[in-house]
Description:
- By secondary structure, the protein is mostly beta strands.
- The protein has one helix spanning 6-13, and strands spanning 19-28, 31-33, 36-39, 42-51, 54-62, 67-79, 82-93, 101-110, 113-122, 136-146, 149-158, 163-173, 176-185, 196-208.
- The strands form 2 sheets. The chain has a 12-stranded antiparallel beta barrel with strand order 1-4-5-6-7-8-9-10-11-12-13-14. It has a two-stranded antiparallel sheet with strand order 2-3.
Amino acid sequence: MKFVKTGLALMLLAGTAQADFSANVGWASDYYFRGILQSPTSPSGGLDYESNGFYVGTWAADVYDGLEVDGYFGYGGEVGDFSYGIGYTGYFYTGEFDDTYQEINLSGGFGIVTLDVAVGKYDGDFDSDTPGDQDAYTYYALTVENNGFYGKFAGFAQDADGSYFEAGYGTTVADIDLGLALLVADEDLSITGDTNESLIFTIGKTFDIN
């Protein structure tokens, strides 16, 4: 399994004096999304626009059978040590790798702790034995982050099952973003049906294009 309504786009463009455009490119030794292996290796790239807390963007990654192409928009802000966000994300595919996901994203954080929740609909079937029966999901993730180190426990509810733990470290060296993470996913998220453990290396760079 990461377009924009006209009204929101016009509102964002009206604030270009305080806006930021950026592009990013990256590569992952193993592309996992929410504990599920998407591709054993994957290049990616995206474009983002942010203005006064509002954001809109798109991101694409190679999943071997075509591309995963994501579109998203939303708003985020901070009040003291408390951070919050609300948005939309659609996950679309150019090949036969998967079907479309669309979801509402909510987040809240205090200090080093963040809770993310996504409530979504899936155009396919999570359980092929019951066609059309399972197409709704809730994703939750609790993350603790400090000085580049982080730990995350996350999982699924409703018609999707499974959970995983991820711990890692991210840093920037000479404007290059580097990351190393250990992911342990239970059998519900593994393509082999067994508990999955993976060590993941990522590298990327973000470019300002104002």
